[in-house]
Amino acid sequence: MLQGVRQLAASHGAFAAILDSGGVVTWGDPDMGGDSSHVQDQLAEVAEIVATFGAFAALRGDGRVVTWGDPFYSGDSSMVQEKLVDVCHVKASGRAFAAILGDGSVVTWDGKRLRDRGGDSSDVQDLLKEVKFIAATDQAFAALRLDARVVTWGHKRYGAEGRLFENRLRDVQHIVGSDRAFAALLNNGRVLTWGDPNGGGDSRFVRDELQDVMQIAASSAAFAALRGDGSVVTWGDSQSGGDSRAVQAQLKQVQHVTGSFQAFAAMLVDGRVVTWGSPNSGGNCREIEEQLALSKKDGTMKVIWGVAGMG
Predict the structure, then answer these.
(1) What is the DSSP letter of 204?
(2) Which of 70, 78, 80, 195 is geometrically suited to a Cys-Cys bond with 54, CB 3.0 to 4.6 A?
């Protein structure tokens, strides 16, 4: 049994664990990041690890970044290594990485250096200043700046077309990405969405309901917004949790919402959990409702559900 683990990250075929010592242990498909032997001597004092579909990036305490895994999925950062200094945070899309530096600028890279996959931010580089947070879809990034403005780049069909209505993307508090779309929570509690309409990028049908929003969660192709009154609004692909009508009467006094690949789970104030979406992604927890109730009473149990092969 692996012990002393501080953080876990996963690609589509491997895991990476940060140990309490700051070292890293990897396992799984060697071609997807399961073999880190060639960079093992560099994996010290690691603070954070993120993953694309087939590679990992480790942020060290000294602000340097170490990458490994499939070069196609950005496991090779040699082209930008000299720029990866004083890094504060690294974000991964499905195919590329983006690093926020201490001065608020951003460095990006991907395996094929394709302009429409997120690894090339040259078209917006002059706008990537004072960045405090980055969200990602499978093939695009959205950066939130200190002035509450948003900058997007990558594949247009995956959310990079945010530039088309950037004048509306002001006063933004937070950004969340599904696989193909973004949702931005504004400081006034409203929500703006863009990207693939089938992936949650079109919220017109629930626009009037998206008020006083406190939190947004994403699945692969849908979003769920938690409002200040404890209710939840959903949109996007119905098979991915975008349709919550079957449980809407139960979605009251919700305090937090979490998304899986194709489902959502809402935790209520009284500790109960309401789920919806694909049963294969955890959208049905009826079989373990009693265990969930017990975990609330004694505070000692962690209960998991869904398809065994997916967690």
Answers:
(1) G
(2) 70
DSSP letter at 99 equals E
For residue 88, give the nearest of 103, 78, 77, 73 by alpha carbon.
103
Domain ranges of the chain: 176-303
pLDDT single digits (tens) 93-108: 999 999 999 999 999 9
Cβ atoms within 10 A of the Cβ of 286, count? 9
- Measured CA to CA in angstroms, residue 197 lies from 111, 181, 189, 235, 282 at distances of 28, 8, 22, 10, 24
Q: Tens digits of per-residue pLDDT, 70-100?
A: 999 999 999 999 999 999 999 999 999 999 9
The residues, any chain, with a CB within 8 Å of residue 204's CB and separated by 6 or more, are none
pTM reported for the whole predicted model = 0.89
CA distance 275 to 283: 5
Beta bridge partners, 215, equal 226
CA distance 253 to 306: 24
Q: Tell me the three state secondary structure of residue 188.
A: coil
Scanning 145-298, the segments in alpha helix (DSSP H) are 289-298
Both tokens of residue 227? 């409002």
Class for the domain spanning 176-303: mainly beta
CA contacts within 13 A on the Cβ side of 91 = 26
In order of 21, 145, 196, 259, 289, the CA distances from 296 in angstroms are: 33, 39, 38, 20, 11
